[in-house]
Amino acid sequence: MLDIREVSAGALLTIDLDAVRANYRLLRERLGGGAACAGVVKADAYGLGASRVAPALVAEGCRHFFVAHLDEAITLRPHIPADAELFVLHGVNPGVDSDCVAHGITPVLNSLEQIDAWTSLARSLNRTLAAVVQVDTGMSRLGLSPREMAMLAGDRSRLYGVDIRFVMSHLACAERQDHPMNAEQLERFEIARELFPGVPGCFANSSGIFLGREYHFDLVRPGAALYGVVPVVGAANPMRPVVRLQARVIQVREVEGGTRVGYGASWVAPGRCRIATVSAGYADGLIRSLGNRGAAWRGGTKLPIAGVVSMDTITLDVTDLGDRPLEPGALVDLIGEHNPVDVVAEAAGTIGYEILTSLGGRYHRHYIGG
Ligand SMILES: *Cc1c(COP(=O)(O)O)cnc(C)c1O
């Protein structure tokens, strides 16, 4: 059963689909009575493989999926049941709206232009077309302004032929529970919803779920928390880790004090040290800001990154392993029990989302569970 890629690849990425499922269950248990839980699987399920992640969510009863681009939706459609609803956050672009209909994909309409294009398609097909209407409640990224929403509500003919599945909005600061924007956006969302009585609401992302039941409405849209990223800044992470990244040691060397390591000679050995060169670099998503800041682990021993991250390699100070030196071919954890995604992200000066979506294409990917 030995897969040749498992030894020929420089690094192994293990994705635990049972953990994704457990995370979905944990989020759903937090919801108030009526709310359903969607799965956000944009950017290939945050780099983890939407064609594997989505069916695992389906097995937990998930029937609503969100991606960003129409392209992603068309690729995903065969991997989820026909009765599952698939939403495209960016809406439709002119010229491809009929592809949306042909594949049974529902756009999130973000502007009056997108609404007009969708209604004119409905008219020309002489049928009703489903859509989500997004209102911007303070993020200023996508969606109709509250004023445009009011205008739309006052002129329902503008929505002729559209079955509004949800009124939707997106939180800007939900991971900070004490941020005043949360309540401001909630209030604006409630006002927008009152304009469309009876239409279900869709508001919370992962972090929004943890703001409390008044943020849940009828459908929540978690992404990151499903993949193990911490949903609340400064709190313990209730989510199960999903990703383990192990890279292989290529070579180990002893260096004298004063020896320089890596491009730019930015790391200098403080004394006699052992340096291991490991087979993953920034081309694999170990973003360059991890240089001289991040660490790998071997068992319970922390192995700091010595020097900058190269394209295909990093160098580790493995001196602390003492009389348990690494052999070429040994694996070290770049993401794992001791260095979960959020810890790696913090060392790199970014967020877990960017670490996950940066994970490269050269890894041997191994799925467990599901
Ligand atoms: C990405 C995204 C989500 C998922 O957000 P998470 O923070 O990953 O849970 C939900 N809604 C919208 C509009 C998004 O762009």
Automatic annotation (TrEMBL):
Gene3D superfamilies: Alanine racemase (3.20.20.10), Lyase, Ornithine Decarboxylase, Chain A, domain 1 (2.40.37.10)
Record's keyword terms, sorted: Isomerase, Pyridoxal phosphate
Pathway(s) per entry: Amino-acid biosynthesis; D-alanine biosynthesis; D-alanine from L-alanine: step 1/1
Enzyme class, first EC level, given as a word: isomerase
Alanine racemase C-terminal domain segment(s): 242-368
UniProt-listed Enzyme Commission number(s): 5.1.1.1
Active-site residue numbers: 42 (proton acceptor), 263 (proton acceptor)
Listed cofactors: pyridoxal 5'-phosphate
PROSITE patterns: ALANINE_RACEMASE
GO MF: alanine racemase activity; pyridoxal phosphate binding
UniProt catalytic activity: L-alanine = D-alanine
InterPro entries: Ala_racemase (IPR000821), Ala_racemase/Decarboxylase_C (IPR009006), Ala_racemase_C (IPR011079), Ala_racemase_N (IPR001608), Ala_racemase_pyridoxalP-BS (IPR020622), PLP-binding_barrel (IPR029066)
GO CC, alphabetical: cytosol
Superkingdom, natural source: Bacteria
Family: Belongs to the alanine racemase family.
NCBIfam families per the UniProt record, alphabetical: alr
Family annotation (HAMAP family): Ala_racemase
Function summary: Catalyzes the interconversion of L-alanine and D-alanine. May also act on other amino acids.
Protein name, as recorded: Alanine racemase
Lineage start: Bacteria, Pseudomonadati, Pseudomonadota, Alphaproteobacteria, Rhodospirillales
